Automatic annotation (TrEMBL):
Keyword Ligase attributed: no
InterPro entries: Cyt_P450 (IPR001128), Cyt_P450_CS (IPR017972), Cyt_P450_E_grp-IV (IPR002403), Cyt_P450_sf (IPR036396)
Family under the similarity heading: Belongs to the cytochrome P450 family.
Gene Ontology MF, one: heme binding
UniProt keywords, alphabetically: Heme, Iron, Metal-binding, Monooxygenase, Oxidoreductase
Residue ranges of the region described as Disordered: 463-484
Pfam family for this entry, one: p450
Residue sites binding heme per the record: 423
Gene Ontology biological process terms, A to Z: sterol metabolic process
Cofactor(s) the protein needs: heme
Name the record gives this protein: Cytochrome P450
């Protein structure tokens, strides 16, 4: 465990204690608003919770139990207090589908995300709405074509290989911290197109401060505070990217930054310099924490379920190449695909998504008044026993051909969201996870102590707070199979 994670663990312990206190506060259940007379809609029921902070701490400290208790009590639509807001929570595939498909354009992403991460990621594509969002997405899609991904994989492979080859065999190897560092180094090379060194370190520090700004408890520009540090870091990132745009536009790099500079819409439209800066800062965030959570929780579950680890290793060793290509990924890793899906189901890395109702609307027969802040609970939805038998058990078999896992609902499994804002980086994430796991499975084996459960906190989704120590062992020549 690294010293870096100790303050985080102390914070999580404090939050747990405080959550225990606030959860006991007697708070009266009431309707969020009364449905219009004559409508057959039901009111959204819930309670505010502790004065001012509402149920915020319980929803961070025990997000799954909290959400499942509310689902059992109120059903798929309920409300709870959270730092001055009343937040409507949606759970279960039907409610999620209504918000994602957004048939009547009742839900705004801009307004939903603004109070959560707006100052740090404003005008990132996920924070745009409707026609403007569609126009930006058409241009951005050009940076996620198969040939673009091929270019990113070529940039990504050497760093992954080099870093993992240098990981030491250790009884308590801090996996989450290490994979985060690997992905930060990779972001410098693949996203920004810079070489590793002091510049990349400064970039990583500013990126880290920007992401953490959005997770600050005291959400005001108080000098020295997390929020203020995030804002200053964002300003430095803006200057850093803006200064490089002319050279990127003129060059022919294959990194994501260069691709955004060159991307064109159907009629030749391109991003302005300001758009590129905003999208770059957002993309770094969208890719980084989500991928770090996915890889870490996969490694954790494979460390507990070593028979699955062995099966995945056999699959990885079956490929004669130590370096993955995009062609290898096309159906060549059915077990890893199934295990990755199961991790996304269990630990949705983008766990809660936000919207705001622009008009009075309805979800699953409930009346949602205009201006309601809405949280789409992806994480807990994929852990509901109504849709997933034995939902807390790691079982990649659910996703293997032949198993009886046909989704009972199209949005029962939706870790990448749905509708027009569905993740643009799904294939990128898939490629990245496989490139890391391919190296790890071939060159190491690992386990976690029986009964070990990582201390978790909440970032973009459920996130290890203890660095995720694993016992990592290099596979010696005696373990190697022929041809590897
Ligand atoms: C396991 C990894 C990932 C997961 C689970 C994930 C999940 C999601 C989800 C649920 C959304 C929808 C947000 C909403 O509806 O408000 C989203 C949006 C987005 N993601 Fe990902 N993501 C992952 C990795 C990535 C990566 C690697 C990239 C880029 C390289 C990326 C780029 C984006 C973008 C650009 C959007 C916004 C799309 C839009 O608004 O049109 N994501 N992601």
């Amino acid at each position: 465990m690294t010293a870096l994670t100790d303050p985080m663990q102390a914070k999580v312990r404090m939050q747990s204690l405080a959550a225990g206190v606030t959860a006991r506060y007697p708070s009266r259940e009431r309707p969020l608003a009364h449905p219009p007379a004559g409508s057959d809609l039901a009111p959204v029921m819930g309670d505010y919770g502790f004065p001012l902070i509402g149920h915020l701490l319980s929803s961070i400290v025990e997000p799954l139990d909290f959400a499942r208790r509310r689902y059992a009590r109120f059903g798929p639509v309920s409300w709870a207090g959270g730092v001055g807001f009343r937040i409507v929570s949606l759970m279960g595939p039907e409610a999620l589908e209504t918000a994602w498909i957004n048939k009547d354009k009742a839900f705004s992403s801009t307004r939903g995300w603004a109070p959560v991460i707006g100052p740090f990621f404003h005008r990132g594509i996920m924070l745009l709405d409707f026609d403007e969002h569609r126009d930006h997405r058409r241009i951005m899609q050009q940076a996620f074509t198969r040939s673009a991904l091929d270019g990113y994989l070529a940039l990504m492979r050497p760093g992954i290989r080099r870093t993992i080859a240098n990981w030491p065999a250790a009884p308590r190897f801090p996996f989450y911290s290490s994979v985060k560092q690997l992905l930060l180094d990779q972001a410098a090379e693949v996203f920004v197109g810079t070489t590793l060194g002091p510049e990349a370190d400064e970039l990583a520090a500013d990126f880290h401060a920007t992401v953490h700004g959005g997770q600050a408890m005291i959400r005001a520009d108080v000098p020295g505070g997390t929020w203020a540090r995030g804002l200053r870091a964002r300003e430095r990132l803006e200057r850093y990217f803006a200064a490089q745009i002319p050279a990127r536009r003129a060059g022919c790099g294959t990194d994501l930054f260069s691709m955004l500079c060159h991307s064109r819409g159907e009629h030749g439209e391109r991003f302005s310099d300001t758009d590129i800066v905003n999208h770059m800062i957002f993309l770094l965030m969208a890719a980084h924490d989500t991928s770090a959570i996915a890889i870490s929780m996969l490694v954790y579950e494979l460390g507990r379920n070593t028979e699955w680890q062995d099966r995945l290793r056999d699959e990885a060793l079956h490929n004669a190449n130590d370096e993955l290509t995009l062609a290898d990924l096309d159906g060549g890793y059915p077990l890893l695909d199934a295990a990755f899906d199961e991790i996304l189901r269990m630990y949705a890395p983008a766990g809660t998504l936000f919207r705001q109702a622009l008009t009075d609307t309805e979800v699953a027969g409930h009346f949602i008044p205009r201006k309601s802040q809405v949280a789409i609970n992806v994480y807990a939805s994929m852990r509901l026993a109504d849709w997933w038998p034995d939902p807390d058990r790691f079982d990649p078999g659910r996703f293997l051909g032949g198993a009886d896992v046909r989704p009972v609902h199209r949005y029962a499994f939706a870790p990448f969201g749905g509708g027009v804002h569905k993740c643009l980086g799904q294939q990128f994430a898939d490629m990245n996870v496989k490139a890391v796991m391919h190296q790890l499975l071939r060159h190491f084996d690992w386990h976690v102590p029986a009964g070990y459960r990582p201390m978790m906190t909440w970032g973009t989704g459920p996130t290890p707070a203890d660095g995720l120590p694993i016992t990592l062992r290099r596979r010696g020549s005696e373990h190697r199979r022929s041809g590897t």
